[in-house]
Design goal:
two-stranded antiparallel sheet, alpha+beta, 2 domains
């Protein structure tokens, strides 16, 4: 996870008619990870999964992705691994935490903050040093007993009353 600011900009698309209801094209620079960064900007007129399949034909490796379902098709073929963007998860948890008794969301946000602290502390080190420290220190946070207990605990249904 990177604590560096994300840069996002809108890119106008010329020479192709777009329906008035379509949204602008966005490009995001989200630095982080242990491998050397690589960015590819490929345009598609829509977000159908076929676009991702076509653009990434022949690619073997790991993609850092948002929740876009188009990447699931690639992952299902076992040629592409997907690493879901922690920022998207954090934003969803942040929305849940203040809305009521969401202790698990609050705890998850505290754990994410600990992971960000580790990232901040290793910034500037070599790729190998950052990887080794992240692996050693983050595993404890992710694998703590309270995380596993809560992840596997039964949840009452929305219609269930604790009063019986």
């Amino acid at each position: 996870m990177s604590t560096r600011p994300r840069r996002r900009c809108s890119i106008p698309v010329a020479a192709e008619p777009r329906p008035a209801s379509s949204s602008p094209t966005f490009v995001t620079n989200d630095p982080g990870g242990v491998d050397p960064p690589c960015v590819a900007y490929l345009y598609a007129p829509d977000r159908k999964s076929e676009q991702a399949v076509q653009h990434l034909q022949g690619f073997v490796g790991t993609l850092q992705v948002d929740g876009y379902a188009g990447y699931k098709v690639l992952a299902d073929r076992n040629t592409v691994g997907v690493a879901f963007c922690g920022s998207h998860v954090r934003h969803k948890l942040h929305d849940l935490a203040p809305s009521g008794p969401a202790r698990i969301a609050t705890e998850a946000l505290a754990r994410i903050a600990e992971l960000y602290r580790i990232d901040s502390e290793v910034r500037g080190g070599s790729a190998e040093e950052r990887r080794d420290i992240r692996l050693a220190r983050s595993r404890i946070i992710v694998d703590s007993p309270s995380s596993a207990r809560r992840a596997n605990s039964p949840r009452p249904s929305a219609t269930h009353s604790r009063d019986g």
